[in-house]
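Rather than argue in generalities, we reproduce a single protein record, letters for residues, whole numbers for local backbone shapes, just as it appears below:
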Amino acid sequence: MSRARSAKHRPHTPPSRPQRASDAALAARGSTDGVRARLLAPVLVAMVLAAVAVVHYPALSARAIAFDDEQYLVENRLVRQPGWTSTWRFLSEVLEPSTVGGYYQPLTMISLMADVAAGGRPDNLRPFHRTSLILHAINTGLVVWLLFMLFRHLWVAAAVGLLFGLHPLTVEPIPWIGERKTLLAAFFSLISLILYVRHSRSSGYRWYCGCLVAYILALMSKPTSTPLPLVFLLMDFWPLGRLSWRSVIEKLPLLAVGAVFAVITVVSQGRTAHITMPTEYSPARIPLLLCHNIVFYPLKMIWPVHLTSHYPLPEPMSPADPMILAGLIGTCVLIPALLLSLRRTRACATGWLIFFLMLLPTTGIIGFTTVIASDKYAYLPAI
């Protein structure tokens, strides 16, 4: 008690001159590092974007019409007749799109229509590829920005952005006209992520509203962005470190919007194209699909060979297939490893959960395609 009183009433001793000098030096060094980072950041980002543009430049001369490009361009009368009438049709045909079989994606169709207005046509695909390349380059820059905001390591953010921009697994959406939706949804999703990080570090809800608007625009481009609010929650766990009941409650408007678009997607896909619900599968099918994709995509990221736009469903869908067996073994090893990693860091488990959530809409739980995997599905989750 007497020690506490003496400590309480002990007069404050000002720091010595050497201590003050040391503190001033540290402050000056921090300020100098901040100035250097601000000056260096635009240069690094410009170099990354230039590398992406140069490497992908040959895509501008691509002439192939692939898979569903006919309904997105060649046979789509609304896309090929730019105007307010076509725009209104794309926006208003919510549950039953009339020109493209499948889900509601009005911003993608409007984007392609704008390219037609700029001179694009089936025998001149350059305007479409040019827009797609610009979007991919911007997405690369947004990846750098997001990672720098989260971790404050400029060189690491630039290196990861460069890897994303040049990785063979992210090539597919650029020369594929119908995959404009993947690039556009990633663009708005990345903006939503950046605005959410800003919201988490500021007071008020200005950034939150921007995040919500960007999320809606991403869903209007491609509904695979639906899990984004759950990604925000995982980011609250790590690296933002703000997970609480309040942070859960603030996600409710985002989750409500995602639920509405999920219903719209299922209804519109069912009315205009083919859809297979989980109840129509055998009970073992979905776990096997998930185990396969959890291992398949990371293997393609690490060793990107034999890439194709069409990875057919294994026959039979059982451990007798080598990739299904590899997926089962890999998942059984991965889950305990991630749980053990939580003793040291939250990074590994959270990163894998974010990857899995962003991949989830395309894993075949609700069947809408004849493939088990596709490079384009990993475009955003690969980050």
Observations:
- Residues 1-11, 23-28 have pLDDT under 50 and may be disordered.
